[in-house]
Write a structure and sequence with these properties.
By secondary structure, this protein is an alpha+beta fold. It folds into two domains: 33 residues; 97 residues. The chain is built from five helices and six strands; from the N terminus they run βββββααβααα. Strands 1-2-3 form a three-stranded antiparallel sheet, with no helix packed on it. Strands 5-4-6 form a three-stranded mixed sheet. Strand 1 and strand 2 form a beta hairpin. The longest helix is centred in the middle third of the chain and has 18 residues. The radius of gyration is 23 Å and the shape is elongated. It starts with 10 loop residues before the first strand and ends with a helix.
Length: 147
C-alpha cells in the first residue's frame, strides 16, 4: 500500500479490525519511510455484468429498473413484496454465478420471464407480450398454450 503522505511503497499494518457487520475490514497502517499513520478500508466489490442491449449499446445492470419492470407486470396481482424480492435475488444470484462480464438483454429478459412464470402466470404473459414483441395473435396464443 502506497503512503498517502510521501508516496513510499513500504507500509506496515499496525492494527486490523473487522466491522460489527463483518463486511468491512479497517487497517491502521504506518509508513516505514515517513513514520506517519493512515487508515485503509477493505470492502467486497460485487460487480454485476454489463447489459448489452439489442442495438449494441451497453448499460450498467440496474436492479431498480429490473424491479420496476417486474412490478409493472405484477400490477394488481396478489404477489407479496417478499416474493418479488426473492425472485430478484434469484435473478441476481444467477447473474453473479455466471461470472460473465457482459450479458445480452435477451438473456436478462428470459431470466425475468422464468421468475414471473414461477410466481404469477398472468404477470408472465403480460411481460412476455411486451418483451417478445409479438407480431401476430398466433404467437401469443402459442405462449398461452405453453403455460
Amino acid at each position: 500500500m502506497r503512503c498517502p503522505f510521501c508516496s513510499h511503497e513500504d507500509t506496515q499494518v499496525a492494527e486490523t479490525r473487522e466491522s460489527e457487520e463483518g463486511d468491512v475490514v479497517r487497517r491502521r497502517r504506518r509508513c516505514l519511510h515517513c513514520e506517519k499513520r493512515f487508515t485503509t478500508y477493505e470492502r467486497t466489490e460485487i460487480a454485476m455484468p454489463t447489459v448489452v442491449k439489442k442495438d449494441g449499446s451497453r448499460v450498467e445492470f440496474d436492479a431498480a429498473k429490473l424491479r420496476a419492470s417486474m412490478t409493472l407486470a405484477l400490477r394488481k396481482r396478489t404477489v407479496s413484496v417478499e416474493q418479488i424480492d426473492a425472485a430478484m435475488e434469484r435473478i441476481q444470484e444467477k447473474l453473479l454465478a455466471s461470472g460473465a462480464r457482459e450479458l445480452p438483454s435477451a438473456r436478462l429478459g428470459e431470466l425475468v420471464m422464468r421468475e414471473l412464470k414461477r410466481i404469477d402466470k398472468v404477470a408472465y404473459v403480460r411481460f412476455a407480450s411486451v418483451y417478445r414483441e409479438f407480431e401476430d395473435v398466433d404467437a401469443f396464443r402459442q405462449l398461452i398454450r405453453d403455460i
